[in-house]
Design a protein that fits this description.
The structure holds 2 protein chains of 2 kinds.
Chain A (H helix, E strand, L loop, with lengths): L1 E6 L2 E11 L2 E6 L2 E9 L4 E8 L2 E12 L2 E6 L2 E7 L3 H4 L4 H4 L11 E5 L7 E2 L4 E7 L2 E6 L4 E6 L6 E2 L6 E5 H7 L1
Chain B lengths: L3 E4 L3 H13 L3 E7 L6 H5 L2 E6 L10 H11 L3 E3 L9 H9 L3 E2 L4 H8 L1 H10 L15 H11 L3 E5 L9 E3 L5 H16 L4 E5 L5 E9 L5 E13 L2 E7 L6 H17 L4 E9 L5 E7 L6 H8 L3 H9 L16 E8 L1 E2 L5 E2 L2 E2 L2 E3 L6 E5 L6 E2 L6 E9 L2 H13 L2 E3 L5 H9 L1 H4 L7 H6 L9 H14 L19 H4 L6
Parallel strand pairs in B: 1-2, 1-4, 2-3, 4-5
Antiparallel strand pairs in B: 6-7, 6-8, 9-10, 9-12, 10-11, 11-14, 12-13, 14-21, 15-16, 17-20, 18-22, 19-21
Helix pairs in contact in B: 4-5, 5-6, 12-13
Classes of the chains: A mainly beta, B alpha+beta.
């Protein structure tokens, strides 16, 4: 089975096959490894990893998420995204695809203030919407100069990362179209 | 002693208080919002009462509903925890009028000390040094600008009520003041139900050192040494320790006496904390009094051996303190790390969501004060504090090593936490040297990133193992993937390895 994972922006390609009831082999970073796998519970697994004739025992924790798995190993708990699922999902999270320029909350939040209205001209760095999560207010700012075309949220709305809260037409584009 | 107490809080602190009540043989009543129906404090308590919607103003800040819940369940006292109504004098008064004991100081003491500006005035009258700043809160931008000019930029905008850094902003110039004042006022209003703000001179690299006090109704007042809480992000503490590496025995005694004097000047009763800023030259300034139990109270408990929550309940029941100042001696060193659901690589943005799995560390001298569990949902409406990890050791160096070992054993899956960040802070040379101040994080860890780790290989193999060896409860289509007979690990179920 081929794995294509990503964590902290780094891709990881490798393969692993089940070789016995409690054993698997893996090819990873040009190394061949033999691993004894003992599942303790839904979340806990013991691994005995044999590499170059030396074996080390590790206790790891794994939980499934919709597009990957969370893994805790050696003191680090991280999310590993499954890139093989990525293609099938493309287009669903439009907001994230637009990158840092989109006005979208960094976490699930509640809209508390909207200092702009449709038609306003904004400069890069101007506050356009203020959201609150876990008692902390965060001001989302325009990342480029332009005109507020549409506001997709109202004060009190619960909003999620990826949802574009304010559409801003860049200044150059405004000039082109007008 | 009381037979039943209502705990007017949520999360780890509600659990902490409920556990103490169980140990004292006192029945506990939890209150909760709709967002917390399945939370741990509701499960631990003997009874639980739904207050209302998730919004704090309609649940945990609704004094009327909480007092009604106490009456309905026959609770004789209310423990407010920290945050929410814990420093609300009107709530303390309302409890008294309803014939319910408020486990904390009387409303009059909260008024005298709790509002930071009032506390400052009282300290000045009692010759405790204070930082230059405003003596009364104001929402008038014109007045704020005038005061800021008098104090001199940079200034700190602070909420007059509450604590915990909520509603606090550093303002470098007059231009930034109106927006900062509006935002700080709104944040304070949301967190404490009081939008009052004031300005204070901003000190560049002070240490935050606070002194725990404990007073009974019979005039006995003692302090329980200091806590150093300089490691902060967004003006909120994330690592606390005691003793402070900066204090000499003389300075400790001086600050302890000042703290007791501060408490006595307001006829204080119950547990409280006097916060100071300590400058590099050894001069200290009164900051504020937190008229409640602090988040970081466990480190004091570990070095002094005093159960502060039990003492709070005893004092509220009218019992005299059977501790004298000379009984309080610090032993060893304790450190607390706040396990926050935040992304340290992304400006400490909160990361609410579902905890898919959690495994807390164990071992000698390790304490977990936690409000989460596998399957818990961390709501967006409340503080990102998931729990606290506290360790004790014979000295500071060993405490740091123990904490880093414990953090490495802490697994939280499903939401991002600051655990790896905390470990790197503790491991840094500056922290090990004890060279801590309130701007430590900005100066040393401003653009922190997780190191590209060797652990990645193990994590990738874990991912593969989890994919290739499915969970027994959900065998792969076609079946037969689950183990046909129990492995030695499974048959040794009672063992912890």
């Amino acid at each position: 089975m081929d794995f294509r994972l990503e964590t902290l922006g780094n891709p990881h390609d490798f393969s692993a096959e089940k070789t016995a009831a409690d054993e698997m082999s893996a090819k990873i970073n040009g190394k061949e490894l033999r691993i004894t796998v003992t599942r303790i519970s839904d979340f806990e697994i013991f691994l005995s990893i044999t590499e170059d004739g030396r074996t080390r025992n590790r206790r790891v924790f794994v939980a499934d998420a919709s597009d990957g798995k969370w893994v805790a190993a050696g003191g680090l708990s991280r999310f590993y995204r499954d890139l093989t699922q990525e293609k099938a999902r493309k287009g669903r999270k439009k907001g994230l695809a637009e990158g840092p320029k989109a006005i979208t909350p960094p976490m699930p939040a509640v809209v508390v203030r909207i200092p702009v209205t449709v038609g306003d001209s904004v400069q890069a760095g101007d506050p356009v919407i203020v959201v609150s999560a876990m008692k902390m207010e965060t001001t989302l700012m325009a990342s480029f100069a332009g005109r507020v075309e549409k506001i997709n949220a109202a004060v009190g709305d619960k909003v999620m990362p990826g949802e574009i809260l304010v559409d801003i037409v860049p200044a150059e584009e405004t000039q082109k179209t007008e | 002693m009381f037979a039943k107490i209502l705990v007017a809080n949520r999360g780890e602190i509600a659990c902490r208080v409920i556990r103490a009540l169980k140990e004292m043989g006192i029945k506990s009543v939890a209150v909760y919002s709709e967002a917390d129906a399945a939370s741990l404090h509701v499960r631990l308590a003997d009874e639980a009462v739904l207050l209302g919607p998730a919004e704090p103003a309609l649940s945990y800040l609704d004094a009327g509903k909480i007092i009604a819940a106490a009456k309905e369940t026959g609770a004789e006292a209310i423990h407010p925890g920290y945050g929410f109504l814990s420093e609300n004098a009107d709530f303390a008064d309302a409890c008294q009028q309803a014939g319910i004991v408020f486990i904390g100081p009387p409303g009059s003491a909260i008024r005298a000390l709790g509002r930071k500006t009032a506390g400052r005035r009282l300290m000045m009258q009692n010759n405790v040094p204070v930082i230059p700043g405003m003596e009364r809160p104001s929402a008038d931008i014109g007045l704020l600008q005038k005061e800021a000019a008098r104090i001199g930029y940079p200034v700190l905008v602070k909420a007059a009520a509450g604590g915990g850094g909520k509603g606090m902003r550093v303002v470098a110039s007059e231009r930034e003041l109106p927006e900062a004042a509006t935002a700080a006022g709104a944040e304070a209003k949301a967190a404490f139900g009081d939008g009052g703000i004031y300005l204070e001179k901003y000190l560049a690299r002070p240490r935050h050192v606070e002194v725990q006090v404990l007073c009974d109704r019979h005039g006995n007042a003692i302090h329980l040494l200091e806590r150093e809480c300089s490691i902060q992000r967004r003006h909120q503490k994330i690592i606390e320790e005691t003793p402070s590496p900066a204090l000499t025995p003389e300075l400790r005694e001086k600050m302890g006496k000042a703290a007791v004097a501060a408490a006595l000047s307001a006829s204080y009763v119950n547990a409280g904390t006097v916060e100071f800023l300590l400058d590099s030259d050894g001069s200290f300034y009164f900051l504020e009094v937190n008229t409640r139990l602090q988040v970081e109270h466990p480190i004091t408990e570990l070095v002094t051996g005093v159960d502060l929550v039990r003492r709070q309940v005893e004092v509220a029941a009218g019992l005299p303190l059977d501790l004298r100042q000379e009984d309080i001696r610090g032993r060893g060193h304790a450190i607390e790390c706040r396990i926050c659901g935040e992304d340290p690589e992304n400006n400490f943005f909160p990361s609410p969501g579902k905890v898919l799995f959690v495994k807390e560390p164990a071992g000698p001298f390790i304490r977990n004060d936690s409000g989460i569990f596998t399957g818990a949902v961390v709501p967006v409406e409340y503080d990102p504090l998931l729990g606290k990890l506290i360790v004790w050791a014979e000295d500071r160096e060993r405490a740091i090593s123990r904490m880093r070992r414990a953090l490495a054993d802490y697994a939280v899956l499903g939401i991002t936490t600051i655990i790896p960040f905390l470990s790197d802070v503790l491991g840094s040379e500056a922290f090990r040297k004890g060279d801590t101040h309130t701007r430590f994080i900005e100066e040393h860890f401003g653009d922190w990133k997780q190191a590209a780790p060797e652990q990645d290989l193990t994590a990738l193999l874990a991912y593969a193992a989890d994919s290739l060896f499915p969970r027994a409860a959900k065998p792969a289509a076609g079946g037969g993937e689950g183990p046909a007979f129990p492995s030695p690990w499974q048959s040794l179920g009672g063992f912890r390895l």
